[in-house]
Amino acid sequence: MRSLVREHAVQQGLSLVDQTKLVTAASELARNALDYGGGGEVHIAKLNDSVRRGVRLTFVDQGPGIADIEAALRDGYTTGGGLGLGLGGARRLCNDFSIDSAPGRGTRIMIARWR
Questions:
Q1: Does residue 59 contact residue 33 with C-beta atoms inside 8 Å?
Q2: What would the pLDDT profile of 60-103 be if each residue is shown by its tens digit?
Q3: Total Cβ atoms within 10 A of residue 17
Q4: Residue 21, SS3?
Q5: Which domains does the chain show, CATH number per domain?
Q6: Which of 25, 62, 92, 94 could disulfide-pair with 106, CB 3.0 to 4.6 Å?
Q7: For residues 85, 87, 93 and 99, what is the CA-based torsion angle, rounded to 10 degrees?
Q8: In angstroms, what CA-CA distances link 70 with 83, 86, 91?
């Protein structure tokens, strides 16, 4: 998945720094989907508007969902024994970030990086 995300970022003209930020965020979110969501899907879209180009990634899982999104986005919060930097770190690495989740209905996270 990392190479596919990088390939799309290169095609959209993202700088090496922006490519690295997007791939790092994608890797963290994919790991979360596997570890906490029981797997899932990622959808990749190339973005073009009249001024800029970018890449949007949407991660969807059917896991248990996140009860407290604000807490989950805070650095240091973890339910799995890690450093608790995953969601907040992914948010900081992207230009756009949205999350939709609730207990019992899984999680959907959208990130985008623009050139």
A1: yes
A2: 999 999 999 998 888 776 666 554 458 999 999 999 999 999 99
A3: 8
A4: helix
A5: 2-114 (3.30.565.10)
A6: 62
A7: -170
A8: 16, 13, 12
